[in-house]
Amino acid sequence: MLPAASQIFSAHLMAALTELEVEQAFLSPGSRSQSLAIAAQQLHDVDRLTLRVRIDERSMGFTALGAARATGMPVAIITTSGTAVANLLPAVLEAHHSGVPLILLTADRPKELRGVGANQTTNQVGIFGEAVRLCEDIAAPVGDVDLDFVRALAEKAVSVAMGDFTHRAGPVHLNICFKEPLSSLTPDAADVYTGAEFPDEEPQVPSFAILNGEVNTVVVAGAEAGMLALEAAEAFGWPVFAEPSSRCRYGANAIIAYAAVLAEDQELTNKIQRVVVYGKPTLSREVQKLIAREDVELIVVRSELTGLFNPYGNAKEIVDDLTVNGEVSSEWLARWRVASHNWISAQNYNTGLDRRKVIELVYQASQLDDAIVLGASRMIREADIWAPSKPIQVFANRGLSGIDGTIATATGIALSSEGAFTRVVLGDLTLIHDASSMIEDPEETINLQLIMVNDSGGSIFEKLEVFEVVAQGTFDRIFRAGQKIDYWSLANAYGFVYFTPANEQELLDALATPGRVLIEIKL
Predict the structure, then answer these.
(1) What fold, for 5-186?
(2) Which of 195, 315, 363, 396 is the 20 to 30 Å CA partner of 437?
């Protein structure tokens, strides 16, 4: 049997991707994508690629997202045609808004079968809209496959996904049509080397802001702000208001209770004259009010991950980096540190298990090589209030701030963490929404803990205007939406060890348990 053109194409494409530092791939089984799946498995068998199989494309998309978040490297996703592709959309949107590199390899029927009623066929080209950095519609390979084209396609896909030319990493979409025969055993992708390499990137001249050091300045570090925010704050003596997923919520410049001080100490807040923003801040209304103030000079530092942040259109400068002329008063930082310390000291301390205690104990239990994943909605905001200063990796899907895919994202992070603990702090609705992602991978053991704060539904809505507008019964039905779930049975069904700690020590014991663990905190 002669090698199928589809298999020749797929073997060379997948081999080229591995030569371009694509180390992980995820696939969901399907017929039209079989040549891609075979090639990926062949590369997996010789340790050129780590291939993982997931039966649900929606969950798979978020798992790949988590793996790419954890490593910073592009991850390939393989699907068959039809609704399989559509199920990737939530993860693709999050990847787009968070600057996460994904390479979507979606198999398709031949182009002539579109729009004529052919089975499992829709127009997949452009299905992700502006959420992908690149969309290529590739005709079905037949006859002699143009191997130079395949190599160049892989080079282009990886370079664009990594943001080499756009300076904004993100997902790319290769929609590949296949005609029968859809696969063959040869060529073996493990024997293929294409010589693929990264194209030369034209150097860019970064833009700088030169700032007056005498102006009272604070750094706002939103999601994915990274070390640049902390380095600037420490270099220039500025307070840094760091969200938990900023990766820089530690050190002497980190103001833990920044949101409370902004809300309650108007004298100090009104003295802010300049805000420098890194990343994408989304958690605090007080920060949004500060950024929108007309009397505050707003400087935004570009992010290759989260993209442009200028929601009120009032940024004075949008730059790549900055420097300062003149001395910065040490008293300015000291005042913010004292104000934060005083606010925290004044809060009543509950000896029972409440949201504050859960956040504090999860951070206490986590070592520096562990990861914390915060679900959207209530618990990430609790972490923004109570999370201590600690240099630990904290992840959250803040691109679009949805609760979808939280467990799957954490699973991808755990799979990339080489035995460290991945602890997910989430609410009951966030867990239920992605419960199908709790399914066990029989080939790999991970230390994944789901710390679920069960407050019977969407308690976050209690902090919004609607709570004062509608009757309690109406609120409970259409906003809180509490569910009746037996979480012991749920954990047992998916092979999780289940704990319901009643006190601090029991929670610490549960947090020390390796493997896959569900911890229910009943409020």
Answers:
(1) Rossmann fold (3.40.50)
(2) 363
